[in-house]
Design a protein that fits this description.
Largest sheet: 5 strands, antiparallel
Number of strands: 11
Radius of gyration: 24 Å
Order of helices and strands: HEEHHHEEEEEHEEHHHHEEHHHHHHHH
Helix content: 40-55%
Number of helices: 17
Strand content: 5-15%
Structural class: alpha+beta
Distance between the termini: 31 Å
Shape: globular
Amino acid sequence: MLTFDNRFLNTLPGDPNPRNHSRQVHGAFWSRVLPAPVAAPQLIAHSPEVAAMLGLGDAQMRSPAMVEALSGNGLLPGMESYATAYAGHQFGNWAGQLGDGRAILLGEAVTQSGPHAGERFELQLKGAGPTPYSRRADGRAVLRSSIREFLCSEAMHHLAVPTTRALSLVLTGDQVERDMFYDGNPELELGAIVCRVAPSFLRFGHFELFASRGESALLRQLIDFTITHYFPHVAAAHAGASERIIAWYTEVCERTAKLIAQWMRVGFVHGVMNTDNMSILGLTIDYGPYGWVDDFDPGWTPNTTDAGGKRYAFGRQPGIAQWNLARLGDALATLGDPSPEALGDALAQFERTYSREVNRIFRDKFGLRDDAGHPDDAGDNEATIDAAFSLLVQQETDMTIFFRTLATAASVDALHAAFYSDAAWQEARPPWQAWFERYAALVARQHPSPDSLAARAARMNAVNPKYVLRNYLAQQVIDAAHQGDHAPISELLDVMRNPYDEQPGRERFAEKRPDWARTKAGCSMLSCSS
């Protein structure tokens, strides 16, 4: 079974108030809180990979004691449940104290054997009831949002995008009232709980909270804790406090840049990039109204709350990540040392890293080389990619299918499969024909042999997924689950385990968004209601 060593709880000061009521919590990093019991817990899905990572087999996952723990109805030996305090900027505005309003940590499991022996993972229940940070909310989550979080956590991992993981999905047997469309018509929905897993759930907002209150000693304590335990190489390389902070902040900027570049590679849109939803480890965290771009539209946002301003739209994600990092830098600046200039230099590393990463990523997506030896390659690569982007935004074109098709396209007509209507393709074909001729000539120059072309296609297919967790696919699974059929959850998860492979018989999971899904709730845009 699991072995726990709850370092965060035992190292950092906590809230002395044992009562679970909504309040401002000062001078503490966490508050003890027990999950609220549920009526009839049922484990309806779990990730065998995450279970194995923790040293758990299938029988252990399905044991009554484990199901009780994963539903909040009981704790395993060594588990200690608590919620953490943090703040944040939401949609660009300072929101003050936020904290784990419906997420309850069960402690830190230390693996005892296998390839992950000695590694430490926090286990966190999302939807397990109210905490002191819940404000006026009930701390619960509904089945539809829990399915989406469970599936996307694992789908992103298999896409090779840094992410928190999901161990389990439990149906609670309770109903939760939610106003899904924020139109004054709340309904009762099935409740569910996801057990999330990560080395740490520390966010930018944890650091912002103590900075905003002038609690410099606590801020320094949190920085030291973070560097010591999650960035030990920084601690080992830098003796001075100021130098350590700058080196750490620089690495956070680099990790975040690499993360966002990976989002852009697969067409993922987070939807709620508030500073309290940004991982200090550079992981994708908090899967709410996310989505994949069904067509290459930099201005698309999956979040109905963001429909007006489009702050968190697909193409704005790099800029927002940099803005969020600047807010983290503001928090660090309250210490007085490091200097604002040093923090600014560290922040500039985001732009350098992102530019390098995204250029490399899209060069790989287009199957172009920068080491072919021709003096014009670099300039021709950039011009070819820019020209494609200019065309992609003009018509409704499926991003995933476009790049996957490009690997083996013998003529421009192969790209027809990525367009959402024949009329759009007929209009777009002439400029795409001109582009494809230039592109094919460049590819032929860089890959002059059949073996080189075959290797190019394999490399392209390794970065251009065939299967992504399209919103309409997730919604089909959700609809089935609401009818009591949970098998499609595991089936879709199994497809997403091998997103870069051809999977005969599963072609329907790679199809572009059907017309019926354009306006269906959950298939295009979503609310934060969960």
